[in-house]
Amino acid sequence: MEKIAYQLWKKDSDSLEIFKNKLLSNLAKDVSKLVSELQINIADADVALASNLVQSNYSPSPNAIIFVKVKSYFSSGEIEFQLDKVTKKIEGFVVSESIILENEKKSPLGSRTEGFSQIVFLEKPANMTEFDWFDHWTNYHTKIAIHTQSNFIYIQNTIVRPLQNGSPTFIAIIEECFPSEAMTDPQVFYAAGNNPELFTKNAEIMMDSCEQFIDFQKIEVIPTSRYRII
């Protein structure tokens, strides 16, 4: 079993709402026989309040990210044939998935997940070895990420290889789901409630860890609506 993540850009002639409808109806139907799992994440109007969280170094950012699970990446050609029907551009990555936090009650099949899903694409800083990067991410940063934030879903995807030549050299894709209030309230985002001191403490701990392994000139942060379809 393999997991594939695709960045999707809509056609210039489509509005974001039309693109969203195509993904949730046409695409879901067309790929249903090709995949065992399908998740569609869309940077739609429902997450407009989270625009202050966007970070983009590869403009324009993708309009959607989808995650599929297949028996083999060999199926990717058929999947991409269907994606090409509804997109202007795609970038695919075979990934290895690690589920740190899951909450199926807040993310039922066939419905929009509560709150919002933040997708983060990361590259390795040039001055770090791959071993040191993963060592910090998995053995140090993971605990900080779940203790200092209000995330109720946290999934780490290590990129195995890109499926298109010339794709950015991303090393990992993170997905975190937060309550809706975290779109506009940093204290909610950092699991601090109405406690300014705890907010400052959690934010500082989180950012100190991030600065040790993230190149902020090569990062994509995209708030999305999350739909688990299959």
Task: Explain what this protein looks like in three dimensions.
The chain is an alpha+beta fold and 230 residues long. The protein is 28% helix and 31% strand. The chain has helices spanning 16-31, 76-86, 130-147, 186-189, 196-211; strands spanning 2-9, 37-42, 64-70, 89-101, 116-123, 153-162, 170-178, 219-228. It has an 8-stranded antiparallel beta barrel.
Portion in beta strands:
25-35%
CATH class: Alpha Beta
Summarize the amount of helix as a percent range. 25-40%
Please state the overall shape, judged from the principal axes of the Cα atoms. globular
Topology:
Blueprint: E1 2-9, H1 16-31, E2 37-42, E3 64-70, H2 76-86, E4 89-101, E5 116-123, H3 130-147, E6 153-162, E7 170-178, H4 186-189, H5 196-211, E8 219-228
Antiparallel strand pairs: 1-3, 1-4, 2-3, 2-8, 4-6, 5-7, 5-8, 6-7
Helix pairs in contact: 1-2, 3-5
Short structural description:
This protein is α+β, with helices and mostly antiparallel strands. It is 28% helix and 31% strand.
List keywords for this structure.
alpha+beta; Alpha-Beta Plaits; 230 residues
